[in-house]
Each structure stands twice: as structure tokens, then as C-alpha cells.
Amino acid sequence: MKDKIKKIYNPMTESCFYILFCLQEEMHGYSISTKVKEMTNGEVTISPGTMYGTLSKIEKDGLISLVHEENKRKIYLITELGKEVLNTEINRIKRVYKNINEGGKCYER
Amino acid sequence: MKDKKKVIKFFLLPDYEKEEKYLSQMHKKGWKIKKILPYYYIFEKCKPEDVVYKLDFIEEKDFVSYIQLFKDYGWEYIQDLNQFSYFRKNTSVTEEDNEIFSDNKSKINMMKKIISRRLIPLFVLYLLIVIPNLLELHTVSDSIVLKILWITLFIIYTSMLTHCVIGFIKLNKKYKEL
Fold first, then answer.
1. What ipTM score was computed for the predicted complex, to two decimals?
2. How far, rounded to the nearest angstrom, does the alpha carbon of residue B111 sit from its chain's CA centroid?
């Protein structure tokens, strides 16, 4: 079961990555969206439908868990399984990044 | 002067984007949606404005936090109908603020959910009830009126299903090309 989930999220969508990355701290949907905008200078937007869908899905798969509810907003935090999945994804991205910097001819720096 | 308008409109399962556009056009003409019933729309007079309308399809949701999340982004919740949630928002100059889905995958997921939860049950009903009944029509009843009624229903059901299948094929193609 765990291995299956790890496979599904390798690789994951960009929205999913940023949501999981932000949830290393306790946050709710809209605050994640604001933080992602800040981190990426407004280049990455996560709209509410995508946010709700992704949060529900990764909660169901056990990557995050509900911590508590505050003013009608659900506050989530990453789980141990979520951390494992996130680390795998980070390593994958680092590998891609390393290869781009070392070799690619068509990539102009 | 009438300040209410009632319209019958047949938007079927794959027509949610057309419905969004229709509601938006009506608002621009000064008719704001007040209540949506199946295939029946009640508008009230308003100031003509540029407003985006969006439909989301989610079967299981925690209602309060779901609506709050959209509210945080500036979306006004209108109502639910058949598991579709209706939202609206003043059109923003920033293109992405007028969307409820920021990636294509979310759009495809929504479409898949509508197909599996709504279209497939209709299809099963069609194969198990509508078609067998039609095949047995000549043996069961002598009444010509009943026969005509059944055949009419059969034609309506078949054309609705065909419309849905074609609509979803078109949507799927559109999302894949984006």
C-alpha cells in the first residue's frame, strides 16, 4: 500500500509539490497559496479548485493530516509518509537540476 | 418593469463550461442568477457587470471549509445542484484569478469524476431498463399510445446520451491539447 502510494507521487504535479513542501509547517489552503506566490515571485498560482482537490487527495492517501480547524479553515501538517514522498521528489528534482547544469547542450545559461 | 426572468435551458453533463459562459453573459446584460433548478434558471435584475461564473464538481466535501476556501480566494458561493457547486466573482485583470483550476490535471479529474459518477449510471440504466423494455414492447402492450410514449422516451434518452458522449469526447480533446 505504502509503496503503491510512493509510486503514484513520483513524480508529482507542481501544485502538489508546493503544497506538500509548505505543509512542513501547519497551514490552511489559502495561506499555502499566498506563500507559494511569494516563494515563486507570483509565477506559480494554485487556484481554489486545484487546492481543495489536491488537499483532499493527499489527505486521503495519508501524506498530510488534519491538525485542527480554525475559523472554518482546515489546518494541515505533513505526515511521516508525506515526508518520505517529499524527499523522494526533492531528490528527483535535484538530479534533474544537476544533469541540466552539467550537460545539456540546448540549455542556455 | 419586470425584475425577474425565468428561463428554461438544457445544459447537460458535459455542458458546464457553456453554462458558466451563459451565466456570465446574462450578468453582463444585467441579469444576475438567483436560483438554479434542474434546467430552470431564475434571474433578477442587476447592474450589468463583468462577472466570472465557475462550476466545480465534488461528491464528498466538508461543506463549511470548502466554501470558506473559495471565499478566501474571493469567490462567492451561490448554491449546489446535483453535486455541482456554483461560484461567481468579479472578473479580475489577472487572468489566473478568474480560474478555479490552475492546472489541466484538475480539469481532467473533474471531467472523469462527472463521467464515472453521473454518465456511467445513466448508461447502465439505459442498457438494463430502457433497451430491454423497448425490445419487449410488441409483446407487452396493445396500446398504441403507450408504444408511442415509450418510443418517444427512448429517442429522448438516446439523443441525450449521444449528446453527452460527444460532449465529453470534445472536452477531453480540448483539455489534452491545452
1. 0.91
2. 11
